[in-house]
């Protein structure tokens, strides 16, 4: 479940970051994104973040999980506040709120998915002579004494 949260967040951020990075000048001026270097910097940042999350999905560790949760929740709060404050068309309003809701759910999945991991078992005590070790992976051998 934790890997799913990593990969879905990366799937959201990678196309968004690449789209912002390669945004043409006429489209940027049409949506009011100015200056263009700021848009390109944001696209590069989102692309790097998405690639980091894609890598984190293959090798999830506690630090990566904290980064996923914190990043998703902060981005969800930012998008939600922008959607409620800005005067947008209904499509843009719904798009921002939908993205915020998706990031909120993925952040909560990342928060809850890692909390149920079991801690490693303590090492077993010494094994009595003549008894097989229950932790060993070796096949049982039969010793015959005639």
Quote the beta fraction: under 5%
Shape: elongated
Tell me the quaternary state: single chain
Mean pLDDT reading: 79
Number of helices: 5
Strand segment tally? 0
Order of helices and strands: HHHHH
Question: What Rg do the Cα atoms give?
Answer: 25 Å
For the sheet with most strands, the description reads: none
Are there runs of 5+ residues with pLDDT below 50, and where?
none
Level of helix content? 55-70%
**Class per helix and strand makeup:** mainly alpha
Q: What distance separates the N and C termini?
A: 56 Å
Task: Walk me through the structure.
With 146 residues, the chain is mainly α. The chain has five helices and no strands. The longest helix is centred in the middle third of the chain and has 24 residues. The mean pLDDT is 79.
Topology:
Layout: H1 2-21, H2 25-31, H3 36-58, H4 62-85, H5 90-113
Helix pairs in contact: 1-3, 1-5, 4-5
Question: Can you describe this structure in just a few lines?
Answer:
With 146 residues, this protein is an all-alpha fold. It contains 5 helices and no strands.
